[in-house]
Amino acid sequence: MDPAKQSQATTKRTSRRVEPPDLAEIIAHALLCCFLEYAMFPRFFKPFFCADKYFYMFEVVCEGCLFEVKVLVKVEGYEVVEGLYYHKDYMWVKKEGAKAKIGITDYAQKQLREIVFAELPSAGDEITKDEPFGTVESVKAVSDLVAPISGKIDEVNEKVKDSPEILNEDPYNQAWLIIVTPVNPEEIDALMDFTKAVNWHKELAKEK
């Protein structure tokens, strides 16, 4: 090929304008994802009752049509996420293989209000079920972090120590506290599951 023509062809290829996706296409794709999720996971799509003042929310995460649905319920404004286990001292536990991730609930962070400091243990330390393993301080009070299970700490979330405000912003994701290897994995199964936690939050809301 003539170098001049090759250069021209290259210029044409690199300068081609790529149009952004049409809004209608985006909406159609989202609806298709929702339809497929409904077909695959019908139990997630339950009707909600305004009289009970709670409702289901769905977050569809789609990456190349490999997507997941995250389900949570709001009870009087307090979020309860499916797939976690809940402890009476307002902690949650998530199974991650042989390990467990631990954090505070949305109810806890809303009661504390603006969190300004978090004192956490170190990797290698051990925690004991129903015993404090750290503290969080807010403009309102200082509260103990109570261990929902026993285990050895493998990892500590340094982000929470550096930026404790993320406990208010994202308690179920970015603001996890510690990852542990449980001493007795059955302790996790003994905690409240999603359904029990929803009912528990209803009782908490009645007490307010």
Walk me through the structure:
The chain has 208 residues and is an alpha+beta fold. The chain has a domain at 85-192: OB fold (Dihydrolipoamide Acetyltransferase, E2P), CATH 2.40.50.100. 31% of the residues lie in helices and 33% in strands. It contains seven helices and twelve strands. The chain has helices at 3-14, 23-40, 106-112, 158-162, 166-169, 186-189, 194-207; strands spanning 54-63, 66-75, 78-81, 85-87, 91-96, 99-104, 115-119, 126-127, 132-138, 142-146, 151-156, 178-182. The strands form three sheets. It has a six-stranded antiparallel beta sheet. Strands 1-2-3 form a three-stranded antiparallel beta sheet. A hairpin with a 3-residue loop joins strand 4 and strand 5 (91-96). It is globular, with a radius of gyration of 23 Å.
Can you tag this structure with a few keywords?
208 residues; 31% helix; globular
Give the helix/strand layout.
Layout lengths: L2 H12 L8 H18 L13 E10 L2 E10 L2 E4 L3 E3 L3 E6 L2 E6 L1 H7 L2 E5 L6 E2 L4 E7 L3 E5 L4 E6 L1 H5 L3 H4 L8 E5 L3 H4 L4 H14 L1
Antiparallel strand pairs: 1-2, 2-3, 4-5, 5-6, 6-12, 7-9, 8-11, 9-10, 11-12
Into which percentage range does the β-strand content fall?
A: 25-35%
H-E order: HHEEEEEEHEEEEEHHEHH
Spatially, the strands of the biggest sheet line up as 4-5-6-12-11-8
* Major sheet: 6 strands, antiparallel
| Overall SS class | alpha+beta
The CATH C-level name of the domain at 85-192 is Mainly Beta
End-to-end gap: 80 Å
E-strand count: 12
CATH homologous superfamily assignment of the domain at 85-192: RNA polymerase II/Efflux pump adaptor protein, barrel-sandwich hybrid domain
Mass-distribution shape: globular
